[in-house]
Amino acid sequence: MKKKIALLLVAAMTVSSLVACGSSAAEEPAAATEEAPAEDAAPAEDASAEEEEPAEDAAPAADGEVVTVGFAQVGHESDWRAANTKNYQDTFSAENGYELSFVDCDNDHAVQIETVRGFIEQELDYICIAPIQSAGWDTVLQEAQDAGIPVLIVDRAVDADESLYTTALGCDMIAEGEAAGNWLTEYLDGADANILVIEGSVGASATLGRTEGFNNIVAKNSNWTVLDSQSGDFTQAGGQEVMESFIKTYGAGNFNVVVCQNDNEAYGAMDAMDAAGITYGVDGDVQIISFDATHDGLQYTLDGKITCNVECNPLQAGFAEQVIKKLEAGEEVDKWTLVEDSAFVAPGIESQYATTMSQEVLDGRAY
Ligand code: AHR
Questions:
Q1: Residues 45-50: what's their mean pLDDT?
Q2: Under a CB-based contact definition with an 8 Å cutoff, are residues 1 and 68 in contact?
Q3: Distance from the CA of 6 to the center of ligand 1, in angstroms?
Q4: CA 284/CA 297 separation, integer angstroms
């Protein structure tokens, strides 16, 4: 194991930037800001998920040694997570000069904290954490800092002082929620909405951000009512269970919008509505909004079953690798890297906030 005291000094001298998916490592960050993008901003033109994460040609370790990386992954709750895990395993491969210690923390915060402690004890060169929940990180982050190990917070955010970690990267979850709300405002064009929300895992920044962002737009629409909002834990089974309970409580015909905070929950919600004889999709009684825009989610969007699908790009490992390569080279790294995403709507819908789905877009979706 290598100690990188000098690198830590560099890591402390961080600046912020915004980097779009698909940009190459050679490109300069588009802007230096820690602000989330403006809520009314249109999504990037056809930012479909063929995006390749950045890569650099240089060997990862400047001294030719294998670079050891620990990744405390959330779990295996969704198709998005599977794609994200594969992307990390492909990027931090032995072939690419890394030794990756990958741990699936099975959505258990205590396990994730102990996993990070294990990485510290092993004196790994770098630690990547995709935080299951945003709270409760100060102590172990301080322990990593005391041990001189750079920490990358990836995918989701932590509710901790930013001096406790080296860098953070991921999608803007609040902006994703606002994108969903802005699209719905445009689509309903003044019509009433009775909305049911199936949230993600409790305490996850993906849940907190998407909820906050969507509620920001709900607050601007006095004829929208959020009837209920419950956690489906980002799983298909959770989505189905919550939807079944919503149907029992509110009854068919009393809601016209279901917001599912990821694609797997949407599949479960569709199963529950199928069983109850409730029609959904562009030609149905209920419009479904989903998040992630994975391949299967976009197939349902192309089929008109999910009316709007807000992307969250799982191909983020290249951004983490870019940070590690910079640290290996003794360079400054950005404090925050935004992985940009877009939104997609069913055929026949034109939107200033989203790309209309086509077979071509679906064919380009690798995950
Ligand atoms: O943090 C990203 C979210 O976590 C994805 O939307 C979801 O599918 C995953 O479980």
A1: 35
A2: yes
A3: 35
A4: 18
Q: Where are the beta strands (DSSP E) in 97-184?
A: 98-104, 126-129, 151-154, 167-170
Given the structure tokens 């380009």, which residue do they identify?
364
Contact residues for 114 (Cβ-Cβ < 8 A; gap 6+): none
Neighbours of 331 (CB within 10 A): 13
* 8-state DSSP, 67: E
Q: Tell how far the Cα of 261 is from the centroid of ligand 1, in angstroms.
A: 8
| 91 CB-near residues (< 8 Å, 6+ apart) | 53, 98, 317, 318, 320, 321
pLDDT digits (tens, 9 = 90+) for 182-234: 999 999 999 999 999 999 999 999 999 999 999 999 999 999 999 999 999 99
- Is 267 near ligand 1, meaning CB less than 6 Å away? no
Q: Is 367 in the pocket of ligand 1 (CB under 6 A)?
A: no
Strands 193-199 and 257-260: parallel
Give Cα separations from 40 to 128, 180, 213, 346 (angstroms). 32, 11, 12, 21
φ/ψ bin of 150: left (φ > 0), alpha (ψ from -120 to 50), beta (otherwise): beta
Residue 234 in contact with ligand 1 by CB distance below 6 A: yes
- For residue 210 and ligand 1, the question of a CB distance below 6 A is answered with no
Q: Cα of 302 to ligand 1 centre, how many Å? A: 21
The predicted-structure confidence for 321-343, as pLDDT tens digits, reads as follows 999 999 999 999 999 999 999 99
pLDDT of residue 30: 28
Question: How remote is the CA of residue 13 from the centroid of ligand 1, in Å?
Answer: 30
Give the start-end residues of each E strand in the chain.
Answer: 67-73, 98-104, 126-129, 151-154, 167-170, 193-199, 224-231, 257-260, 287-292, 308-311, 336-338, 343-345, 355-356
The per-residue pLDDT for range 4-33, each reduced to its tens digit, is 433 333 333 333 333 333 222 222 222 222
Q: Strands 257-260 and 308-311, how do they pair? A: unpaired
Find out whether 9 and 153 touch, Cβ atoms under 8 Å.
no
Task: Give the total residue count for the chain.
Answer: 367
Helix or strand (DSSP H, E) at 268: helix 263-276
Q: Which helix (H) or strand (E) holds 142?
A: helix 138-146
